[in-house]
Write a structure and sequence with these properties.
The protein is mainly alpha-helical. About 55% of the residues lie in helices and about 10% in strands. Helix 2 links the parallel strand 1 and strand 2. The longest helix has 16 residues. The radius of gyration is 16 Å and the shape is elongated.
Protein backbone atom coordinates (compact mmCIF):
# COMPACT_ATOMS: atom_id res chain seq x y z
CA UNK A 1 0.00 0.00 0.00
CA UNK A 2 3.03 2.24 0.08
CA UNK A 3 2.54 3.73 -3.39
CA UNK A 4 -1.09 4.81 -3.03
CA UNK A 5 -0.49 8.22 -1.40
CA UNK A 6 1.85 9.12 -4.24
CA UNK A 7 -0.64 7.87 -6.83
CA UNK A 8 -3.50 9.90 -5.31
CA UNK A 9 -1.24 12.98 -5.15
CA UNK A 10 -0.17 12.56 -8.78
CA UNK A 11 -3.70 11.99 -10.12
CA UNK A 12 -5.07 15.03 -8.31
CA UNK A 13 -2.10 17.12 -9.48
CA UNK A 14 -2.82 16.30 -13.13
CA UNK A 15 -6.52 17.15 -12.74
CA UNK A 16 -7.94 13.69 -12.12
CA UNK A 17 -9.96 13.95 -8.92
CA UNK A 18 -9.10 10.88 -6.88
CA UNK A 19 -9.77 9.52 -3.41
CA UNK A 20 -8.57 6.28 -1.84
CA UNK A 21 -11.20 4.03 -0.27
CA UNK A 22 -9.93 1.04 1.65
CA UNK A 23 -12.31 -1.92 1.78
CA UNK A 24 -11.66 -4.07 4.87
CA UNK A 25 -13.46 -6.44 7.19
CA UNK A 26 -14.44 -5.42 10.70
CA UNK A 27 -13.16 -8.77 11.93
CA UNK A 28 -9.55 -8.23 10.84
CA UNK A 29 -7.58 -6.18 13.37
CA UNK A 30 -4.41 -6.19 11.26
CA UNK A 31 -6.33 -4.46 8.46
CA UNK A 32 -7.19 -1.61 10.80
CA UNK A 33 -3.54 -1.27 11.83
CA UNK A 34 -2.54 -1.12 8.16
CA UNK A 35 -5.34 1.36 7.44
CA UNK A 36 -4.14 3.63 10.25
CA UNK A 37 -0.56 3.47 8.95
CA UNK A 38 -1.79 4.38 5.46
CA UNK A 39 -3.95 7.19 6.85
CA UNK A 40 -0.94 8.62 8.68
CA UNK A 41 1.12 8.51 5.49
CA UNK A 42 -1.64 10.20 3.51
CA UNK A 43 -2.04 12.89 6.18
CA UNK A 44 1.71 13.44 5.96
CA UNK A 45 1.27 14.03 2.21
CA UNK A 46 -1.60 16.50 2.75
CA UNK A 47 -4.24 13.96 1.70
CA UNK A 48 -6.31 13.78 4.89
CA UNK A 49 -9.49 14.49 2.89
CA UNK A 50 -8.70 11.82 0.31
CA UNK A 51 -8.87 8.59 2.34
CA UNK A 52 -11.81 6.61 3.62
CA UNK A 53 -12.56 3.17 5.01
CA UNK A 54 -15.45 1.00 3.92
CA UNK A 55 -16.38 -2.15 5.81
CA UNK A 56 -17.20 -5.22 3.72
CA UNK A 57 -19.97 -6.05 6.15
CA UNK A 58 -21.67 -2.68 5.56
CA UNK A 59 -21.31 -3.04 1.79
CA UNK A 60 -22.88 -6.50 1.85
CA UNK A 61 -25.80 -5.31 4.00
CA UNK A 62 -26.40 -2.34 1.68
CA UNK A 63 -26.23 -4.58 -1.40
CA UNK A 64 -28.84 -6.89 0.14
CA UNK A 65 -31.10 -4.02 1.21
CA UNK A 66 -31.09 -2.63 -2.35
CA UNK A 67 -31.59 -6.02 -4.04
CA UNK A 68 -28.19 -5.83 -5.73
CA UNK A 69 -27.70 -8.75 -8.11
CA UNK A 70 -24.49 -10.59 -8.89
CA UNK A 71 -25.22 -13.49 -11.24
CA UNK A 72 -24.55 -16.79 -9.48
CA UNK A 73 -24.28 -15.29 -5.99
CA UNK A 74 -27.05 -15.02 -3.44
CA UNK A 75 -26.34 -11.76 -1.58
CA UNK A 76 -28.69 -12.84 1.22
CA UNK A 77 -26.43 -15.86 1.82
CA UNK A 78 -23.49 -13.45 2.20
CA UNK A 79 -25.47 -11.46 4.76
CA UNK A 80 -26.01 -14.61 6.81
CA UNK A 81 -22.39 -15.74 6.48
CA UNK A 82 -20.29 -12.57 6.57
CA UNK A 83 -22.01 -9.98 8.74
CA UNK A 84 -21.89 -11.77 12.10
CA UNK A 85 -18.63 -10.00 13.04
CA UNK A 86 -20.34 -6.65 12.52
CA UNK A 87 -23.24 -7.67 14.77
CA UNK A 88 -20.85 -8.93 17.44
CA UNK A 89 -18.83 -5.72 17.50
CA UNK A 90 -22.02 -3.66 17.70
CA UNK A 91 -22.83 -5.36 21.02
CA UNK A 92 -19.50 -4.40 22.63
Amino acid sequence: MNGYPELVTYLNKVGIICDFLLLISVGNDSSFTGAKDLQNKMIGNGLEKNIGVLLWEDVILKMNKNNFIIPGIEINDWVQKYTDALDGDAEI
